[in-house]
Amino acid sequence: MAFPARLGVGLVLATLSVGCRAADPFAQSNLRATPKRGAVVAEHPLAAQVGVTILNMGGNAADAAVATALALAVVYPQAGNLGGGGFALWVPHEGDPWSLDFRETTPSGYGTDLYLDDKGEVVGHRSVRTPLGVGVPGSPQGLFELYKVHGSKSLTFASLCAPAIALARDGFTVDAWLARDLRREPARKRLMSDPAARGLFYPGGDALAEGEILVQPALARTLERYARGGQAAFYKGPTAEALVQTLKEADARQGGIVGDRHMSAQDLASYRVKVRKPLVGWFRGHQIISMGPPSSGGLALLQVLAILDGFPLDDDRNRVRRDRDLGVAVPAEECGLSARSAHWLVEAMRRAFADRAQHLGDPDFVEVPVDRLLAPEWIADRRISIGERSDPGVQAWRSAAPKESFQTTHLSVIDKEGNAVSMTTTLNTTFGSGIMVGDAGFLLNNELDDFSLAPGVPNTYGLVGAEANRLLPGKRPLSSMTPTVIREGGGRVSLVIGSPGGPRIITSVIQVILRVLVYEQTLEDAISAPRLHQQWKPEWTRMEGGWPASLLETMENQHGQELRVEPDNKFGSVQAILIPDTRVPEAVSDPRRGGRAAVQD
Ligand code: DON
After folding, report:
1. What mean pLDDT, rounded, does the chain reach?
2. From residue 212, how far is each of 171, 268, 582 by CA, in Å?
3. Which of 115, 229, 370, 478 sits a CA distance of 20 to 30 A from 506?
4. Does the residue 194 lie in any domain?
């Protein structure tokens, strides 16, 4: 991929640019080159294949994304879903980017007190494996909305649902990943304690094994109703009734904590997706488009890239170029990233996550100071505060006033017209709450654990939060999902990217972008390379296995970084498509998991 001349950094908020933009810089459509083929990358080969089939039938990126997500709801029950939520970013080949928030909302009867015991202490598991953790699902309405607003209309909604219905009705072969995840704790115990989930995934008491066929007739019926009636067929009628009844029964099994405050038919009927303005920023001449609140992903991504832009990362890159010219092999895991650059990266992440913990939440409930947190003065302040030593005590902007095996899933699509969809969707932890709506055949999320349940009390991901992310009825919990698209001159999409991984979504996306844009690695190498993760609290930085020992040593000894290497842990699962100057898309599914890239012939 060729890099445009460095244009300097400017952060532009789409929300702020309205009215002061003189001309659309991408309005020169004669400059826009379209990809030679469409491509889909997702975390299951069957789902990626469904997406490409839809492209081959004349569907666009939105059509393919909807069909892929529905297929994931069948073949990847760990995270693909009807009972969860997510975010989708649509970047058209012409015109303004658009983003959709189909995040779950808090049922109207819920309050933080439901998570507390008699002494006022948070009972952690309540937000994870009881009906109290379940938010009102957003995916069925989100996918329908994406189809309605941006689908090509050359295909009906029913035809986008058809491949998922066939996979549910006729069955598919369980792969090694599903078989493994069904055996793993704590998901196994959670699913086993739910009668419907146990019946489906543990027939006879044992987890389905690789190679067995999983048939899901109840899910097929739910999808058929959805195909015929659109989103309304989920939020009202038999599916909604079964969902409400399931939560009541699950609560009764677990001791009846929820009482009469459980999710109601009214909560479902009043659920609404939100169209949000995407966040737009710049990094070395590349336009970075990502998700705004209630996701923290886009903001943290733009903050980190902007902070890093003031550091001489090019020195490393130039050293690699020199080595290459001299024929010296540069290992992919290193790619020239020096210990000093890794230290800067860690410190930039630390600062972004401090702001996240303090200020971010659902913008419909709290004022999120997005413009202040991306303001050049604040970015400059953050940059200048980074010295040669680690700074665990760093604090967030002040106004006048860990473990793996969690699963979310990301899919990226580009079509031949050059339209892109970057979509991340989740049940939160692997298989969500483990509560299955038996009559309708789908699992429910435990997304409400993403709220800060009490000041300073970490959630499943070790994240702490503040007032801005306090649980309130109707509110959406703060997310880390970071669906992102990068564009070049003429509005040409050059990268479609995203990942699962809780807070490591943000840091995974940052690192792949840096490796591609600054260190000139191939997309494949950039995705395979080891990752690090820093999220402010805890203070230490987590390192995947595979980093050069000398880099770790220098980070610790010279820069005072506290590092914890987790050789067996995998951070995120990036699903990305790079469209280089040749216009032939390079689609890569992270080798950390079992996804697949599929490119049109
Ligand atoms: O929205 C969030 O940030 C989390 N619920 C995402 C969970 C996740 O990515 C788990 N995946 N690996």
Report:
1. 91
2. 10, 35, 42
3. 115
4. no
Examine the pLDDT at 13 and tell me if it is beyond 50: no
Q: Which of 106, 130, 408, 541 is catalytic?
A: 408
Q: Any idea which residue has 């595979």 for tokens?
A: 546
**254, burial (CB in 10 Å: exposed 0-12, middle 13-18, buried 19+):** middle
Supply 530's token pair.
């080891």
**CATH number of the domain where residue 321 is located:** 3.60.20.40
Residue 480 domain boundaries: 1-19+33-85+98-171+215-272+279-388+404-601
Cα distances from 402 to residues 202, 268, 428, 542, 562, in angstroms, run 28, 32, 14, 9, 16
Pocket perturbation via mutation, ligand 1, pick of 409, 433, 476, 505 by most ligand atoms within 8 A of CB: 505
CA of 135 to the centre of ligand 1 (A): 14
pTM of the model: 0.92
Q: Which residues line ligand 1 (CB under 6 A)?
A: 406-408, 426, 428, 447, 450, 479-481, 500-502, 505
**Does residue 408 have an active-site annotation?**
yes
Does some domain include residue 202? no
- Confidence grade of residue 33 (pLDDT, cut at 50, 70, 90): confident
- Evaluate whether residue 60 is within a structural domain: yes
**Closest atom of ligand 1 relative to the 499 alpha carbon:** 9
